[in-house]
Amino acid sequence: MTKSKISLKLVAPVLMSFFVMSFCDLVGIGVDRVKLEFGLSNTMAQLIPLAVFFWFFVLSVPVGILQDRIGKRNVLNLGMAVTAVGLLVPFFFYSFGMVLFGFALLGIGNTIVQVSANPLLVDVVPDQKRSSFLSFSQFIKSIGSMLAAPLAGWLALVYGDWKLLFAVFGVVSILAILWLGLTPVEESRNTETRATFASSFKLLGNGFIALMVLCIFLVVGIDVGVNAVSGQFLLHKFSSAQTLAESGRSFYFFGKLLGTLGGAILLAKWSSRKFFVGSSIAGVLSLLALIFAPTETLALVVIFIVGLGIANIFPLIFSLTVERYPTRANEISGLMIMAIVGGAILPPVMGWVADAFNITASFVVLLAAIVFILIVSIYGFQKK
């Protein structure tokens, strides 16, 4: 639909869903705390992000098809409801098995939210403001991601239980459901041929689309890998205090927060393709610097720069691909959300490398991923 002005009444509850979307980033604090409390190996601890991000591969395309039939708002509220249940399960029933089950529900809910939130936001903002609001939505998501670790530390210090974080975010999810449910949203409807499994997966035969989907797989793996392993990296390499090590990922998310805000401003003037190349170069250099960081303070600064550098790669890949194939936007969206499963694959690989060698060596996995993205960004920039 085409709108001429912004309605805060419509936009605010949809943006709130992006805050709920950030709750999957609890996977990082979950890895640190659960590993410590249950005495897990690095490999076993990284089953937590696997439990979350596996569902993006399984459910993204089916959720898109369901959304085509029952509407975006209904699907978005369903996703936030599953998210709320996933948060409350480990709060009330705390064991390693129930943590995995709760995080699996969190992954299912987050998959549903990711598929539905972006297109619903597009429906409630003017056409000329879509790119700006899509970038701003990632800013909102980064706020939630950044708050998780320090809030967990504060709850542990004041109330003696970091798991209260699950309850707090569970209640926030329920409030977001009620807010969106009470908001009348006029959704756009697909009146042409509906997307199908066949039409979606057939696009992977297109070399450019396949490369871009693979880049989404890798950049999400980098994002989750830094989130899930940065705390262990600081603990083992620099013997950092537990609270400081957990807060290290907040430096990363603060970098992402500023990066998405800056990206929304700079992309109004800069070429998306050049920005993609620049972001990839920044990612390569910052991950190299992190591997060789000699002090705890410098490592924290570099973790911030990693977040700043790669913050806009996901939306850039999405926008560049849809820009090239605008009539296949629905299928491309499903494939790219499916590729978020990279967050389930790279962290366990990092865990295996950490157990086989050391925690610092595990970051070579992420370095290889960002180097590949840089190569693709140059290819995409040169391709006409």
Automatic annotation (TrEMBL):
It is found in: Cell inner membrane. PROSITE patterns: MFS. Pfam families: MFS_1. The keyword Membrane applies. Coiled coil: none annotated. InterPro entries: MFS, MFS_dom, MFS_trans_sf, MFS_TsgA-like. GO terms for molecular function: transmembrane transporter activity. It is a multi-pass membrane protein. It comes from the Bacteria. Gene3D superfamilies: MFS general substrate transporter like domains (1.20.1250.20). GO terms for cellular component: plasma membrane. Keywords: Cell membrane, Membrane, Transmembrane, Transmembrane helix. Residues 6-384 form the Major facilitator superfamily (MFS) profile domain. The chain crosses the membrane at residues 12-31, 43-63, 75-94, 100-121, 133-156, 162-182, 203-230, 250-268, 275-293, 299-320, 332-353, 359-381. This is Fucose permease.
